[in-house]
Design a protein that fits this description.
- It contains six helices and seven strands, in the order αββαααβαββαββ.
- It has 222 residues and is of the alpha/beta class.
- The protein has a five-stranded mixed β-sheet with strand order 4-3-5-7-6, sandwiched between helices.
- Helix 2 (32-57) packs antiparallel against helix 3.
- The longest helix has 41 residues, at 88-128.
Amino acid sequence: MVLYETGVLRIGRGHEGKISLCFSAEDAKASGVLLWMAAGAASILGTILAAIVVSNAIRPFYVLRYIYPVSVVAWAILAVIVSRLRGKRLYAVLLLAYMLAVFTPAYMSRYRGDRAANERLQETLAATVEEIGAEDIILTNISHMGWTIAPYYYPENTVKSIDLSALPDLEKGVVYWLIVKDGQEMEGVREALGEQGFSSQKVFERGNLGTYPVTIYRIADF
């Protein structure tokens, strides 16, 4: 494709009807289509490389969803390539059939997964929203849960991020709610709570907040 668009490769037919390929760099040039494709490829690779550099220099940053916007460019480039081929209609039909055969099962699996996650989210909220009082304090050791997710679902409550290995001093008479990753080991946490005169009660497990699997505990003094 690159050789053809730059004029280095020329395709023709001889007197006998045979297809001939001619390579020549004398009249090479960069067509508008090639420049557009090169810019698109650069945007894709630039996005990926920038994410990798930030991830290594600061903290993990590379997330698949950040590639979704530039993936449109990748599909556009593929469409342009197919449109420049001989027999493009046949190739387009074959490509469409391949995409449907390969991607449909993946899309359906993702749909079922997202639907199940949303159902768990609704069950989690149904079990907690009415139970958590406006004066109760929510604790969590999940970083993004503390500053984005929990405040969204429980806007009336104070949300604090904590370290489970070094629990802060809790105030008597205040009800706390602890949101941890589903499956979190809690034996050490229970011991630390007991030393402060608090006990924990599991309210909901295998729940979901946002897209994160969580278990929620109610913490109160004896």
